[in-house]
Amino acid sequence: MSNGIVRMPEPPRHVSLRRCSFRFSGRPHSIKAARDWLSVRMDIAGVPEETADTAVLLLSELATNALVHTASGGEGGAFYVRAFFFHGRLRVEVRDAGRTPFPVEAATPDPDAENGRGLLLVDTLAHRWGRFESGRGPGMFFELRWNAQAIRTEPAPTAESFR
């Protein structure tokens, strides 16, 4: 027996997912494909289940808006989904491949209306949301947070606080 130092093998390094994007055809079945695509990526990135469920719902709303209100839903149309993963935060963007601006009104719909509540849901559930412009065209985004320490609403205590 020896008292020598034995080198232990290093554990495999986990490369974290930071951002990803995909192009979806402008057909209604692509909304489910986009939800499934995002779900897999959020699972890889370790997004908590409740936050992931909310993200899938909000993605459905923005993708539906892309199909209904932009050129994405037209003949040969498409939309892009891009996800950014940060510590305790997720940002999802939906962009029309045809460069059509998205509507951004979160108005309260008629109680008897069958639709018109998508952006109201986004406004209610997202920590931040809105429209963005990029070199590849306009789109909509939402952000969700799940790390309570990352969502500090009050100033951090100072030394004066403890006197």
Automatic annotation (TrEMBL):
Keywords per UniProt: Kinase, Serine/threonine-protein kinase, Transferase
A single MF term (Gene Ontology): protein serine/threonine kinase activity
InterPro entries associated with the record: Anti-sigma-factor_SerPK (IPR050267), HATPase_C_sf (IPR036890), HATPase_dom (IPR003594)
Domain Histidine kinase/HSP90-like ATPase: 25-129
Domain of life of the source: Bacteria
Keyword Lipoprotein: no
Protein name: Anti-sigma regulatory factor (Ser/Thr protein kinase)
